[in-house]
Give the backbone structure.
Amino acid sequence: MDASLPAAPAPGSLRAWVLAARPKTLPAAVAPVLVGAGLAAHDGVFAAGPALAALAGALLIQIGTNFANDYFDFRKGADTEARVGPTRAVQAGLLDAGAVRTGTIAAFASAVACGVYLAAVAGWPIVAIGIASIAAGVLYTGGPLPIGYVGLGDVFVFVFFGLVAVAGTYYVQALSLAGEALLAGAAMGALITAILVVNNLRDIDTDAASGKRTLAVLLGERWTRVEYACLLGAAYAVPPIGIARQGWPSATLLALATAPLAIRPLGAVLAAREPARLNPALGDTARLAVLYGFALALGFAA
């Protein structure tokens, strides 16, 4: 064993649960909430309590979705030893499938607790958003027709991690919905969807072999690479559009300062032919989405 590599978590340990929660994915749940809060601050409607509850709810739904994916992908045979991505806790024998199912329920139940507070603050629309978000998290890989198995995963991520996350965070503070929140949500949705695109491009062969029909499997490698480039381009087009059409502050152009960070993952996605070579691009894209979100939120709040 390579002594430079960290030791694997002990089965059933806290480290195994942390691994299953996929902490590297969690900042992607935080960034859209920060954008919604920054926009609320710009519009003079920032409210700390609802913003923090939205943040906690987003994190819990992300964790619950990660647990559900680990459980259902294992049960459906999508996670095998042929994967070249990060370790999956159930497939690796670090956590029992039944325990992860229970963890999924616990994470979503905790998210509901945040939703009860937000519903008291902002009314029935939050109930509908919460139910839809949790249902989508489960049905992404669970149920008779999983979203992620029929080419709809990209749409799910764009809608819930972009439009819903940003606009929902704005709504619980402003108690109204503005078109500019949806525009900002589209930028975040594009970048977070790009994370999924890299993941699915890397796994395109193993997913196809297991019957998991992601959009990458349906489009093929060439057009999946084109999709990735288009998502990045769309995100960087949003701040100038927001300034021109929505009266956004010029400081939101700060998000464009992250563009150089897109060069390396874009080059890897366009050129890499071996799946393992896409793992760095996955991390780079996640980092790009988070830093873009921070920059856009700061531009709103400045």
